[in-house]
Amino acid sequence: MKITDIRIHVLKSPLAEPFAFSQGWVRQRSATLVEVLTDDGLAGWGEAFAQGLEPPEIAAAAIEHALKPLLLGADPRHTEVLWHRMYHATRDYGRKGSVVAALSAVDIALWDLTGKAANAPIHQLLGGAFRTRVQPYATGFYRTRGQGEAARLADEALRHHEAGFRLMKVKLGYGVDDDIECMAAIHRAIEGRGVTLMIDTNHAYGRAEALRLGRALADFDLRWYEEPVVPEDLAGYAELRRQLPMPIAGGENEHTLYGFRELFAAGAVDVAQPDVGSCGGITAMRHIVALAQAHGVAVNPHVWGSAVAQAASLQVIAALPVAHHSLFAQQPVLEYDRSSHPFRQQLITRPIGLQDGWVHIPDGPGLGIEVDRAVVERYRA
Ligand code: CA
């Protein structure tokens, strides 16, 4: 089997109602999808993570100009060899950000092809499934005005609960006092309903403010506190980890085993959150999981993007060992963004959804999904 072509699809869709996370206003959805074609007629799909404010064209250009020439004619099943070929070729201008996201997209497509060629789901190729279903957590609580939305957010928590979610992650980072007010309102609304909360400030604060927020929420039994400070401040992460009672999480803006090595060496996180569309793909996820295991750090992938990235994340989660084994060990959970996103529900023929509060992991060949090409054309930028 040989790679004959690589096609890149940049999709965009304006949002009916823009929303804010701590770093800015999101006005459109975008995605960089990649399709790797072979001489035996199989096509593999991948996706580069596009952070809310990241132009999807950067990863698209990296795939077209830097990665595609390295792959034409290669056997797509040689995932480890091709990962290193792509990483070495882009090292001097890559290593992080959109270039590694581009590499990730291609790597996911190669795994999809490998699975399709073997007629096996990717999790089987990764050594088997530890689980066939995963509990999702609702990511939401974005702002539509900015500050002073505590009542609306409390109501949103009830909507997630009604939809079957028992885990919820609240976006914070809009000012510590406003954050505390919103969390108090959400906590009051869901109290006694068996809901576990997490928070995510998207690195809105410096150490002092991040600490003040964490201390104010010390009694909320948070599952984790995500991206409390900027990803460069590993000493800040470690300090917060020492001073706060809740687990500290981060890593969606880190890449490859080399980047995560620094995170682990600094003792920065309890929970590492590589994104399969950004950390270097399924191959890099494998490296990072082994490294995390050796450092006693749990991995719980960050999940964003379209249905392609969701499907790749589900395959990875199926094959993810628990970090700390016991009879009743804490299992990884699936980030399930509840904001409007046409590339999730429409892009594949059987969209990923909840059944009795759980998401079942597809067991078809490769990613286990079928991309609807008409939808790709509809949203093509
Ligand atoms: Ca996050």
| Domains (count) | 2
What hetero molecules are in the model?
calcium ion
User: What's the N-to-C terminus distance?
Assistant: 31 Å
Annotated CATH topology of the largest domain: TIM Barrel
Instruction: Return the CATH class of the largest domain.
Output: Alpha Beta
Determine the number of helices (DSSP H or I, runs of at least 4 residues): 13
Overall morphology: globular
Low-confidence stretches are none
Write the CATH homologous superfamily of the largest domain.
Enolase-like C-terminal domain
Strand content: 15-25%
The residue-averaged pLDDT reads 97
Largest sheet: 8 strands, parallel
Number of DSSP strands?
13
Give the strand order, joined by hyphens, for the main sheet: 11-10-9-8-7-6-5-12
The chain-level structural class is alpha/beta
Question: In CATH terms, what is the architecture of the largest domain?
Answer: Alpha-Beta Barrel
